[in-house]
Amino acid sequence: MRVFKAVLAAVLMAAMSAAPGAFAQPQQTVDASSAVAPSQTNPASMTKAEKKAARKTARKEARAKKDAELKKLESAGYKPGGYDPNYPESAQGAEKKAAGQ
After folding, report:
1. Distance between CA 90 and CA 33 in Å, rounded?
2. pLDDT of residue 59
3. What are the φ/ψ torsions at residue 30 (nearest 5 degrees)?
4. Which of 16, 18, 52, 59 has the CA that lies 20 to 30 A from 84?
5. For residue 46, what are the contacts with CB-CB under 8 A and spacing of at least 6?
6. Which DSSP category does 38 fall into?
7. What is the DSSP letter of 46?
8. Which of 11-25, 34-48, 52-66, 87-101 has the lowest mean pLDDT?
9. What does the buried/exposed string (b/e) look like for 4-19 if buried means 16 or more CB atoms within 10 Å of the residue's CB?
């Protein structure tokens, strides 16, 4: 399994170096107040604990975003859970109503 991973990593690195534009990541603007330490910008140089913390932070942010969206829809009249025979229409109506607020 280790040999397979090593070969896979070598093939991916070769492909990325052969076509640098093909795997380009979108550029993000970062202001000086939210600058990230250099060890955190490159996943290969991050420690296991730093990677775990980054994943945890990303999960918390995603959960907060989903919770905020659900709260906004609930305030617009959407009631999640249970059986709703008008599900797509009721959710879409709440989304339109929430977008108008």
Report:
1. 42
2. 98
3. -130, 125
4. 59
5. 39, 40, 54
6. H
7. S
8. 11-25
9. eeeeeeeeeeeeeeee
Query: Residue 52's closest CA among 42, 43, 65, 41?
Result: 43
CA count, 13 A, side-chain hemisphere, 55: 8
Q: How far is residue 52 from each of residues 7, 21, 47, 73, measured CA to CA in Å?
A: 25, 29, 9, 32
17-57, pLDDT tens digit by residue?
655 554 444 455 544 444 455 444 676 788 999 999 999 99
- Cβ contact 75:98 at 8 Å: yes
Which amino acid is located at 96 in the chain? K
CB-based contact 72:96 (threshold 8 Å) = no
CA distances from residue 74 to 26, 61, 91 in whole angstroms, order as listed: 34, 20, 10
46, 39 in Cβ contact below 8 A? yes
Joined together, the tokens standing for residue 34 give 């939210």
Contact 50, 36 (CB under 8 A): no
Q: What's the token pair of residue 10?
A: 């070598």
